[in-house]
Each structure stands twice: as C-alpha cells, then as structure tokens.
Amino acid sequence: MAAPTDAEPRPVVTVGAHILDVLARPVEGIPAGQDTVVVDRIRVTAAGAAAGTAVALARLGNAVVSVGAIGEDDLGDLLVTIMTREGVDVGGLVRRTADQTSASILPIRPDGGRPSFHVPGANLTLTPGAVGAGLLAAAAVVHLGGPDVTFGLNDPAFFTVLEAARAGGTVVTMDLLSNMPDLVRGAAAFLPHVDHFLPNEEQAVAMTGEQDVERAALALLAEGPASVVVTLGEKGSLVATADGVRRLPALPVEVVDTTGCGDAYCAGFITGLLHGRDVAEAARWGTAAAATVAQGLGSDACLTDLDAVLALLK
Questions:
Q1: Is the Cβ–Cβ distance between 295 and 301 less than 8 Å?
Q2: pLDDT per residue over 196-251, tens digit each?
Q3: Average pLDDT, the chain
Q4: Percent of all residues in the chain with a pLDDT value above 90, rounded to a whole number
Q5: Residue of 108, 228, 107, 109 lying closest to 173 (CA atoms)
Q6: SS3 per residue for the chain
Q7: Residue 289 has what pLDDT?
Q8: Going from the N-terminus, what domains does the chain have, and what CATH number goes with each?
Q9: Quick check: 13 and 92 in contact, CB under 8 A?
Q10: What is the pLDDT of residues 55-102, one digit of tens each?
Q11: Whole-angstrom Cα distance, residue 135 to residue 290?
Q12: Catalytic site residue from 89, 195, 263, 300
C-alpha cells in the first residue's frame, strides 16, 4: 500500500480487526426446532474496531485507509465491497486462503442488547509484515482497532514502526474489541506507544485490576498515553488527562442497537482531533457520533455526515 503524496491529505489509517456483521432486529429468543420468527429488519455491515471505525471516519468526511487480514472468500468480497462503497481505501487489506473472513451474527434484542455468534477468522493472522511503515508514517492518525485480537501486532518490530511514525507527527489512538481478560491484558503492551486510548469500562477494569473506573483510567494513563477516554454506555464517558478526570454525559436518544457505538465514538473523537479540538471537546464529538449510531441497526446506522452529528451537541 503506497503512502500518500505531498499533494494528498494525510489519511487516517485504521489497523486491526475487520468483521462482517449480520444483524437482525428485534429478536427476543432463538426459536425451537426449525420454527421461523419474522423480524423487522436484517442488515449486513462492515464492523470490527478497525473496519467499523474506518467506515464511520469516512462518513464523517475523513480520508481513510484500512489495514487488516480477511479471507479469500465471499464474506471477504462483501466486506471489501461495502468498505469501498463507503469511500474507504482497502488497499491495505491482505487476503488469506487458509482462514475465513471474521464474521458475527447479532440477534438484537428489543432493548438494544446484542448477544453475538462470532468467528475470529483471519483477524488472528495479522502480522507487522502486512502493515506498511511508510503508510503509518504518512498518516495523520493511526487507529489501532482491536490489537487484543490481532495479537500478532504485539511485536517489538511493530512498536518500532509506531514510534517512528509518532516521531514524525502521527497521532496513535487505540480501541479494543473483546472483553476477555487475558486478551485485554495482553494489549497493555501497546500503551507506551499510544497517544489516546479509548477502552470501555469493562476493558479498563480488566486491564488494570482496578474496580473503580476513575482509578482504572488513571492507572492506564500512567502507562504512557496522553489521554484515556473510557466509554460508559448510558452513563456517558470519562476523560482522564494530566489535568485530571472529567465525566461527560451520554446524549438522550432512543437506543435501537448499541452495535458499533464504540467504533463511532472513536471516529468522532479522531475527527475532533483532526479539526483541532482538545481532548475533552473531541470526546464530545465522539459522544455525538455514538448517539447517532445507537438510533439505528448496525455499526454505521444513521451516520450521514459530520454536520448531522454535531447538530446533536447544539
């Protein structure tokens, strides 16, 4: 994947988990035997902490390149089609013949809850060799989306590339995909190489062992990031920086589905940074993006453009 030329804007590069989601809503239970339940809607979306964030970033007006591993299969073809249609440059995706594209089936409950059936697939095969050092160095922001499940990136060689990019002015953000304690704790190795870390509450607690979310955020901050932004669902989010801890409320919207809210939050946050906003204001942009997505089905639901997102803050 070639780096952009001087005449092109510096892109956001999302690196990590790429998943194809199949969502149905509303689902109150799995029918017995071969019974059929009629639902209101079924959708297929690009998802995962890299692919879902890439689509949301593109919808918010950013140039985006996505890097990850997917299968040489129909699921991968569909994922590429969706992301390309959204304006994401998918030249950084590598195709695997021995592993399927990661995918999830999500039966969404009437209250927005989202149990899942998930195949990790090719995400587990991503290694530093698939990530172009020049591309990261040329990026305005590199977003590590799900290094807890693309653990092949947990490599000193990749950390060296990240540090070289940061030395050249690239900002590095990070979000996680799973809530599995062992995977989450493994991702702590990335923290010294990250500028802004955006876990959810369960991930922050699992990574630190702290039961109080504010103490967890401060413990993570001590590992190197300039900010730690913990998303708290309906309770909003918590922003920890060297200046202290601040809580931001969630926006009052009717929640249809929480799938992709974390990815949208990251996209809004990154977009705020790229527009020159400070961390707290960027977190408000993230809050608005997440609230927008929560009002529909799937990780890109209701997300049209930046102006519509920012209108929620007025």
A1: yes
A2: 999 999 999 999 999 999 999 999 999 999 999 999 999 999 999 999 999 999 99
A3: 94
A4: 89
A5: 228
A6: CCCCCCCCCCCEEEEECCEEEEEEECCCCCCCCCCCCCCCEEEEEEECCCHHHHHHHHHCCCCEEEEEEEECCHHHHHHHHHHHHCCCEEEEEEEECCCCCCEEEEECCCCCCCCCEEECHHHHHCCHHHCCHHHHHCCCEEEEECCCCCHHHCCHHHHHHHHHHHHCCCEEEEECCCCCHHHHHHHHHHHHHCCEECCEHHHHHHHHCCCCHHHHHHHHHCCCCCEEEEECHHHCEEEEECCEEEEECCCCCCCCCCCCHHHHHHHHHHHHHHCCCCHHHHHHHHHHHHHHHCCCCCCCCCCCCHHHHHHCCC
A7: 97
A8: 51-69+128-311 (3.40.1190.20)
A9: yes
A10: 999 999 999 999 999 999 999 999 999 999 999 999 999 999 999 999
A11: 28
A12: 263
Amino acid at 37: V
Phi, psi of 91 (to 5 degrees): -65, -15
Q: Does the annotation count 300 as an active-site position?
A: no
Q: What is the pLDDT of residue 190?
A: 97
Nearest to 240 by CA among 80, 248, 135, 24: 248
Which residue in the block uniquely carries the two structure tokens 């689902």?
27
